[in-house]
Design brief:
Elements: E1 7-8, E2 11-19, E3 23-30, E4 36-42, H1 50-66, E5 75-81, E6 84-90, H2 97-107, H3 114-133, E7 136-137, E8 146-149, E9 153-156, E10 163-164, H4 184-187, H5 195-210, H6 219-223, H7 236-248, H8 261-273, E11 281-282, E12 287-289, E13 292-298, E14 308-313, H9 322-331, H10 333-340, E15 350-353, E16 362-367, E17 369-370, E18 373-374, H11 376-389, E19 394-397, H12 409-425, E20 433-438, H13 441-456
Parallel strand pairs: 13-20, 14-16, 14-19, 19-20
Antiparallel strand pairs: 1-2, 2-3, 3-4, 4-6, 5-6, 7-10, 8-9, 11-12, 12-13, 15-16, 17-18
């Protein structure tokens, strides 16, 4: 629908990032502020008239904009461009928690630790509580709509099927949502209140901790009154986590928490008290974190003797300037040819190639930025996860995006350091050595200062402003694995 370089009001389109069951997602940059922006459109093959698609986009943007919360993805604008309704919204520089969880299970063979799940779910509880306080029901609470940023925490997005809740009234049900995370009353198409989102968040928390939703076959919620089958708890904190989730997942909504204020507070407190990995330690020449030795040094990254070298790549995978050119000169043109064989790649991606003549096993091409618009955090997260999946023990990284893409050096260092901090704190890391290789001493000093501030500075605990409790306002043939389902006529 959009073309690369196309101007959309104050935004310049880079290209399509991906999409889901209902929408396509595009990356753009604000032409004046040089920040990345997400542009969302509804897929034209849904069979929905352009006028209705425009109204849906406007409604979603309006509902997001009315919620005053740092835990909700911000809406910037909505409109129609060349008969294509769209919404522009905040880009969160990280990967969604569904991708993070599955990537970790595939790379390090373990799920997300309890403290992290509690911390992220507490953030989303705050987001949903704020939404409810502004009269909005989300109705599609699931891990793929939780956007994690190592620098900012976790934010709730995708209000595509959210509805405004009239004061003192319930919302008429229409059986829309993602089946594996829907409350029983939502599956039955009954009227809904905020307790449907309470159930959805409980199901998402269960999925993030245990690797599958509490009721993989949602038909059991229609045929009886099942209870979630928790695995045996391994600690008192785990037992308490399961106690909170059990009430959130109660079949009868009258037995659930009436709002997300209390479970948000409980899970936030549990996040602060659950076991965490040991704090990083500084020595004279490095920082050590959970057995991983982290250094900054001056040198030519193409000469690094490591298992993996990260390339600061552009989306076309050209290796003609900067770090890419150095790697191509030392390793051979075959590295660039292999990188380009798969075509262009979206910002935030990480592509793996052979090393050519370089003294490493693999080259990881992190597509990190475009015209000052930074996706450095996302591409660093993916590079680290790919390194784990490949079994690499040592990794050399440059400052991503600071060449032709002109990302500020300090901004790149902060995004990379925060991504590494998060990666190591989640546990299971098999990397023994991470080397940041800079091309002069001044850059090394700046990078080292930012890196140490991220790894050794303030506590990893996210700010917890607290939640104020409030009074409670008084057979389609589809796959349960589908993303988001619209009932006919909705």
């Amino acid at each position: 629908m959009f073309e690369s370089g196309e101007q959309l009001r104050e935004y310049e389109i880079w290209g399509r990032l991906g999409g889901g069951g209902m929408s396509d997602v595009w990356l753009a940059r604000h032409t004046d502020l040089a920040i990345p922006v997400i542009v969302k459109t509804l897929r034209p093959d849904l069979g929905v008239a352009s006028e209705e698609r425009a109204q849906r986009m406007l409604t979603e943007a309006q509902l997001m904009a009315r919620i005053s919360s740092p835990y909700v993805v911000r809406a910037y604008s909505a409109g129609t461009h060349r008969d294509t309704p769209y919404m522009a919204q905040e880009y969160v520089d990280g990967i969604d928690l569904n991708e993070l969880d599955h990537a970790r299970r595939g790379s390090v063979g373990r799920g997300l630790p309890l403290w992290f799940v509690c911390e992220a779910v507490a953030d989303i509880a705050r987001a949903l509580h704020d939404a409810h306080q502004h009269g909005v029901l989300h109705r599609d609470v699931k891990p793929s709509n939780f956007f994690g940023s190592p620098e900012l925490g976790t934010k709730l997005g995708d209000f595509g099927i959210a509805v405004a809740k009239p004061v003192g009234q319930l919302v008429s049900g229409d059986a829309s949502g993602t089946l594996r995370f829907m409350a029983p009353e939502a599956l039955r198409g009954e009227t809904l209140d905020r307790r449907a989102d309470v159930f959805g968040l409980g199901a998402a928390a269960f999925d993030l901790r245990y690797g599958s939703p509490p009721f993989p076959d949602p038909r059991v919620l229609l045929d009886g009154r099942p209870r979630p089958a928790f695995p045996p708890p391994t600690s008192p904190q785990e037992a308490y986590f399961q106690h909170v989730l059990a009430r959130m997942l109660a079949h009868d909504r009258q037995e659930r928490y009436p709002t997300l204020a209390q479970p948000g507070r409980l899970l936030g407190a549990l996040a602060r008290n659950a076991p965490r990995p040991a704090a990083p330690m500084r020595s004279s020449d490095c920082v050590t974190c959970n057995g991983t030795r982290i250094t900054t040094e001056v040198g030519n990254i193409a000469e690094a003797d490591v298992d993996g070298i990260v390339n600061s790549a552009n989306w076309q995978l050209h290796m003609q300037t900067g770090v890419g050119a150095a790697l191509r000169r030392a390793g051979g043109d075959e590295i660039e040819a292999e990188a380009q064989s798969g075509g262009e790649h979206p910002l935030g991606a990480c592509i793996v190639t052979g090393p050519g003549r370089l003294r490493c096993r693999k080259v990881l091409h992190a597509v990190s930025a475009w015209q000052q618009a930074s996706c450095v955090g996302r591409s660093t997260q993916r590079a680290l996860l790919v390194a784990e999946r490949l079994g690499l023990r040592s990794l050399a990284l440059p400052a991503l995006g600071t060449g032709a893409a002109a990302v500020a050096f300090e901004a790149s260092a902060a995004a990379m350091a925060s991504a590494l901090r998060w990666h190591l704190a989640l546990g299971g890391c098999r990397l023994e050595r991470v080397r940041f290789v800079l091309y002069d001493e001044n850059k090394r000093r700046v990078f080292a200062d930012v890196l140490e501030a991220a790894l050794l500075g303030e506590s990893d605990d996210l700010a917890d402003p607290g939640l104020e409790a409030s009074a409670e306002d008084s057979d389609n043939d589809v796959s349960t694995d589908g993303p988001t389902y619209f009932a006919p006529g909705t």
